[in-house]
Amino acid sequence: MATMTKRELPNRLLLGPGPANVHPQIMVALQQPVLGHLDPVFQEILVETAGQLRRLFGTENELTLAVTGTGFSGMESCLANLIEPGDTMLVGVNGFFGTRMADFAKRFGAEVVEVTAPWGQPLAAEDVDNALHANPSVKVVGIVHGETSTGVRQPIEEIARVAHAHGALVLMDAVTTLGGLPVMVDAWGVDAAYSASQKCVGTISGLAPLTFSPRARERLAQRAAALPTWYHDVEALHQYWSAQGFYHHTCSSTLVYGLKAALDLMDEEGIENRFARHQQCGDALKAGLEAMGLSLVAAAGHRLPMLTTVRIPDGAEDLDVRKALLAGHGIEIAGGLGPLMGQIWRIGLMGYAARPVNVRTFLAAFAQILTDRGCTIDADAGKAAAEAHLAQ
Predict the structure, then answer these.
(1) Is residue 224 a part of any domain in this protein?
(2) For 183-223, how does the pLDDT look when each residue is reduced to its tens digit (9 = 90+)?
(3) Concatenated DSSP letters of 133-148
(4) Of 13, 22, 17, 23, the residue nearest 332 (C-alpha)
(5) What is this structure's pTM?
(6) Could you count the other beta carbons within 10 Å of the beta carbon of residue 155?
(7) Range of the domain at 219
(8) pLDDT tens digit string along 156-190?
(9) Domain containing residue 318: CATH number
């Protein structure tokens, strides 16, 4: 049996919903010497990283850090701290990850009110307002900014205004959007938000950035019930991420190096340039797919730039096409979740993977595979439409 030091691993083009390919400079940073979790140099890195995360979240929140784990770890951290048994929480559900947020909230003892929209459509602020009028005890409103199962971008600011008018906190899932779209926690009135390191943030999986507003921290101080988790106590974690560096757990210095390097690259590129790169590549991909004759899932005007959902055409089968892309071209994309399983593909252009060369490479391989299976595809039109956007 081959050991890891001798095993040859494939070099994939990761164009699914995450993880994404990682910039070479980040891979170099991940090889830096391991430091102890209380080493003063590592404490400096934690403090600097927290400052960069504040800028990325668009916030002045003092309590801004990254917890160990994936985006679900961030979701669990936020809900464990904000929810007490018997609380009422409203969750916007228009895809898989809104459904998961509702499930997590129930596990922490919340009475959950769901405001729904069809998968592929955004939630209506009016529906949220009506639900809050009908349920005046709601303490937290949870909304997914970028629904990774459908590719829908949810306007947050109007829903946040409605929630605050009813005295509720606003919790935002920014797992897919942070680093690829503007996330403006303070300007939008978001009280807590979480994300993940392996998508548009651009590094490897293993950390979940999050932020809590002063208003949310007031709610934490007023809790009657003890926190149901020790590891995800965000106030204790905040003390660890501060300059004093009070011991909490054995944080991985390696994971933080990767996050810090990713944030450094954002600073070098310029965050507006980064957003524009994701938008251009996403627009080119969508234009190419539609010109080829394929149908997109997310509602026009509410489509994420970094995650595109496309319906599987007649003559093609979900897993067969994905296997052909992986085996023949080294390209990974994802299938649908929940009721969209077997009906759609999810194509990501996130972080370092959001580059014109990857749009061209994918569209060419995708058109070839679909044509080989007898699908009616106009590959030339798709290429021309994509190039028109990439030339802008």
Answers:
(1) yes
(2) 999 999 999 999 999 999 999 999 999 999 999 999 999 99
(3) HH-TTEEEEEEESEET
(4) 13
(5) 0.97
(6) 15
(7) 24-267
(8) 999 999 999 999 999 999 999 999 999 999 999 99
(9) 3.90.1150.10
